[in-house]
Design goal:
The protein is an alpha/beta fold and 198 residues long. The protein folds into 2 domains: 125 residues, HAD superfamily/HAD-like (Rossmann fold, 3-Layer(aba) Sandwich), CATH 3.40.50.1000; 66 residues, no CATH class. Helix content is 46%, strand content 15%. The chain contains 10 helices and 7 strands. The chain has a 5-stranded parallel beta sheet, with helices on both faces. Helix 6 links the parallel strand 4 and strand 5.
Length: 198
């Protein structure tokens, strides 16, 4: 099968993300981790990725403990600081794929309220033909539904489409639907894997 499309995850593939950084001037990484665990940051951030409004997430956290609400409010206020810029080497891969006539798309777990911050920090995001954003769809990877929406919206044939993500769960979900699925570790590894399928 000739590959016609490559779909990129965004976070940790095209753009770096470190949720500690908005707090870096205020506390150590160890202290941040302690507070993040106490506030259940991972679950609350996933709610944001799934379309729950920021203010609702802050209110939920504050119901458990006002300090948790303050913690989440500080994170969302500093969301731009958590974006660390391009992942080395992947912007060049996007450019090369486009030059070769291959469609490039995005599929990301990201809040609808902050997705606009991405392209300024990693311009390759703005080079994608289109992006399916979980926060806008109100469904997150690895739910097969968000992959089905990607397929329908961009008229994709999964067996002719490469899907790239740093999460093994998301890669497995894509493979189940017939995509040529690649788990990302770095640009050199991705370039080698793409050479084997394009």
């Amino acid at each position: 099968m000739v590959i016609t499309t490559v779909v990129f995850d965004l976070g940790q593939v095209l753009i770096g993300w470190d949720p500690y950084l908005p707090f870096a001037s205020e506390m150590s990484r160890a202290e941040w981790q302690r507070r993040a665990d106490a506030a259940n940051f991972t679950a609350l951030n996933l709610l944001s990725d799934g379309g729950t409004p920021t203010q609702e997430i802050i209110a939920r956290a504050a119901e458990r403990d006002p300090a948790h609400g303050e913690f989440m409010a500080r994170y969302f206020t500093g969301a731009d600081e958590a974006l660390t810029g391009p992942i080395p080497g992947t912007a060049e891969i996007v450019a090369e794929l486009k030059a070769a006539g291959i469609r490039v798309l995005g599929l990301t777990n990201w809040s609808a309220e902050t997705i606009h911050l991405g392209p300024a920090k990693a311009p390759a995001i703005g080079e994608l033909e289109g992006i399916v954003v979980s926060g806008e769809e109100r469904v997150t990877k690895p739910d097969p539904e968000i992959f089905r929406r990607l397929i329908a919206r961009y008229d994709l044939d999964p067996v002719r489409t490469v899907f790239i993500d740093d999460s093994s769960r998301n890669v497995a979900a894509a493979a189940e639907l017939g995509f040529v699925a690649i788990q990302f570790t770095d640009a050199a590894q991705l370039r080698a894997r793409l050479a084997g399928v394009l």
